[in-house]
Amino acid sequence: MMSLMYSLNKVEQPENLFWEDKEVKFDRPQLHTRLRNGEKILDTILHIEDSKGNPGDTGRLLVTNLRLIWHSLVHKKFNLSIGYARIGNTSTRMVHSKVRGTNQALYILAISNETRFEFLFTDVSGETARRELPIFASVFDVYQLYQRTYLYRDLKLRGAILQAGQLIIMPDEQVYSNVQGVWNLSSDQGNLGSFVVTNIRLVWYADANETFNISLPYLQIDSLRIRESKYGPALVIQTAETGGGYVLGFRIDPAERLSELFKELCSLHSIYTEQPNFGVHYDTVDAQQRLAEAAEAAEQAAQFKIENFQELDERQEREINTKLNTYLAEGCLNPGPEQPTREPIYCKELGFAMERIRDGYKLKDLWDVLPTNMETVE
């Protein structure tokens, strides 16, 4: 039987390797304009400075479905790319500088090739309102979506991908064919199982043990071949370097069915590589609406603080103190026998006897030395 082969020649062309979500790159030509097929810019955050690497340069932070891209608007050759798979930690914080004051910043810790990178992307717009807005919310939203959709992009061995003997279908995934009687030639005795062919990946699982399985996205296939083996004609799949560089062999009888499956996989792989589905679906309209609502809430909160600010009228306190002092002063200015004697009376408010208060004064004026109820000045 003539050997058939379908190859992407990824080994001969390293630039075609799927690296965007798995690498940290610096200063690559036209980084923000040369996106991979299927890569989409989901959000653009303006007026952002790479405070650690390029302080003083205002740039833009692009949030794609695979990575974060920052590029300078001052020096076009300065840029960087952070794949989501390399992010170890991320958070927002408030940073202070003598020039710009207090601003919001995005902190990212990335690890690539055993090297730690720390990034600080600072808002340099100068807009006071942006300090209270979640301007980096899209980064966290997309990153979480990326973490939950790895089966679209990465080879997975022995994963929880089946339930009651059926493949767990992912969003936008369609099953095209099920092939039974597929021998996995990874061991000397072989393992009998089944293929599930979808528009996103090729899945094999053992009939005797469903946990012994392989989920292989077309994105991680380097080459497909039919070649002779000691078991007869076999389907040989070479995975990409980012997929572990495995060589997988499968035998299917009869040979005609093997040939049909080979053609189907080649066709699906070709279609998928033209427009891959990375699994990250972000509702930009909803995100913009949530940001607008957050801005409105921040504005209302600021207005609430102003409207509820109470200015205390100190004149009330001065008035009470003045009456008490005046009352005492009048008693001191008229000492002597000619001063009329005021007979004591019983005061119900105080519960004891006291001298009668002079005309023009009230008990409250003398008793409430400090005001108890302050009025708000309109």
Automatic annotation (TrEMBL):
One Pfam family in the UniProt entry: BBL5
DNA-binding keyword on record: no
A cellular component annotation (GO) from this entry: BBSome
Protein name per Swiss-Prot or TrEMBL: BBSome complex member BBS5
Principal location listed in the UniProt entry: membrane
Xref: InterPro entries: BBL5 (IPR006606), BBS5/fem-3 (IPR030804), BBS5_PH (IPR014003), PH-like_dom_sf (IPR011993)
Gene3D superfamilies: Pleckstrin-homology domain (PH domain)/Phosphotyrosine-binding domain (PTB) (2.30.29.30)
Taxonomic lineage from the root: Eukaryota, Metazoa, Ecdysozoa, Arthropoda, Hexapoda
Domain BBSome complex member BBS5 PH: 39-93, 173-227
